[in-house]
Amino acid sequence: MGAELTRRDFLKLCALLGVGAVVTLYSSEIKRVFSQVAEQSGGKIHLIWLNLASDTGCTISMLQASNPDLIEAVEELGISADFWKALMTPDYDLGWVTAGYTQEDLSQVPLFNAAFGNAPVDVLVVEGTPQLGTPRGNTQGYFCTTGKLNGTPVTGYDLLQKLAAKASYVVAVGQCSSFGGIPAASGNLTGAVSVSDALKQASVSTKHQIINLPGCPANPDWTLVTLATVLQGIDPDLDGQGRPKAFFTSYIHDNCPRRDAYNRGQMAKTFDDPVGCFWDLGCKGPITQSSCAITKWNGGTGFCTLAGPMCWGCMHPNFPDPPTSAFYAPVADTATILGVNVDEVGEVAIAGTAGILAVHAIRRSLGKKEGEPEKENATSSEPSSEATH
Ligand code: SF4
After folding, report:
1. Residues 6 or more apart whose Cβ sits within 8 Å of residue 8
2. Out of 10, 49, 190, 245, which could bridge 84 as a Cys pair, Cβ 3.0 to 4.6 Å?
3. Element (H or E) spanning 212, and its range?
């Protein structure tokens, strides 16, 4: 590897390259960040993964992380997942066994120690939606209750308030915690809201701005890069929705592998079309900002419009309500509502080329040796700025 990344360089890289290049080219540096922070904190980074209303899909997604993978992060890099209910089993140590907890504590003691006791919390990751009550019944309800404290049920919302106030960083992972997602969609019966809205309602302040990593599920590599960033003491550059700009600036439409078909006006009539653009079938790629098409998923092997289905807009703040639904309605009208001119979106891809040039400039400045192989952002084509549809 070339020269070590400084904090400033790391921030620049995340902003300029998009996470794809950062993950691919600098995985060893990302691992180093975790190791350094672990050393500085006396051997462990204390992470609480709080599951609220969701299907636990973001945890499943995290199991697909590859640079580093989750096992490396937990076992080798000094992350102590003091509580991560979905992954805590008697025979697999996520840090809580070595921290001295016994098997019978598995259910809630580490969590309660973090929320109500003296156990440290470096990073609070929230998966799922806080639920504030039942609007129709006008009752608070006891949602996501995890045991009792002094005889009183402790809800997920209670835990969120305590842990968020204590944590150095709060990262909302997934569409549900970032924006409310499916639990907060039209017909919401449980008072489900985003983490940001729930904490605002409870007048709870956090030490740093809450970082939102939407997606259904969230991208595991983006999550680990974000954790590496905050653990370096860097506040990621966030957009107006609290999302790291490094991952949520370009539109999926900019770099979609079907973009050439779009430019040619070759529209798919069915979802098994291997080449055609899914515009007519309701693709929300033109209004959805995320780096899915650049970094891809599952070790960089695929993502929605590459694998077959269209983009459903799961990174979009209102998902799954309009404008991302109705899912099969073409996006043309909703684009106007959002103030996005999809005929101009392709121009962003041209700007992306400038970003790739900047990658080379930064790598040279970091001492990358001449002749070492370069891996660039995986732009799938040479998109034209002239949309023809
Ligand atoms: Fe890709 Fe959808 Fe844009 Fe077509 S409309 S190019 S499938 S993102």
Report:
1. none
2. 49
3. strand 211-213
Say if residue 387's pLDDT is above 50.
Answer: no
Lowest model confidence (mean pLDDT) among 20-24, 141-145, 196-200: 20-24
Nearest ligand 1 atom to the CA of 279 is: 5
Band (pLDDT 50/70/90 cuts) for residue 287 is very high
State how far the Cα of 295 lies from the Cα of 218, in Å rounded to an integer. Answer: 13
Residue linked to tokens 């506040």: 235
User: 250, 252, 253, 342: which to mutate for ligand 1, most atoms within 8 A of CB?
Assistant: 253
Instruction: Verify whether ligand 1 is closer than 6 Å to residue 252 (CB atom).
Output: yes
Q: Is 349 in the pocket of ligand 1 (CB under 6 A)?
A: no
Span from the CA of 256 to the centroid of ligand 1 (angstroms): 6
Question: Which pLDDT belongs to residue 112?
Answer: 83
Q: Chain-wide mean pLDDT for the chain?
A: 74
The residue-averaged pLDDT of 169-183 equals 96
**Beta strands per DSSP E along 162-205:** 169-173
Q: Is the CB of 31 under 6 A from ligand 1?
A: no
